[in-house]
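INFO  loader      accepted 1 record
INFO  loader      residues=71
INFO  predictor   begin
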Amino acid sequence: VKNVDIIGVNRPAYDTLAPEVARRSQEQLLDWLAAGLIAPLVSRSYPLERVVEALESVVTRRSTGKVVIVP
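INFO  predictor   done
INFO  writer      dumping tokens
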């Protein structure tokens, strides 16, 4: 499949309303990740000492993708 974007999933709702679907979906995503078929978009990594700056980048929407805190 091409030209597909995943915008977001209400995971708690799936866990409550369709736990088996949530479990299978999680397994599939982890399989794709392990196979290198998908990769999370990491916009920036911050050292633990700069956690406040990292969180501010999320709150103020300066980040695109995931913000990673590295110990």
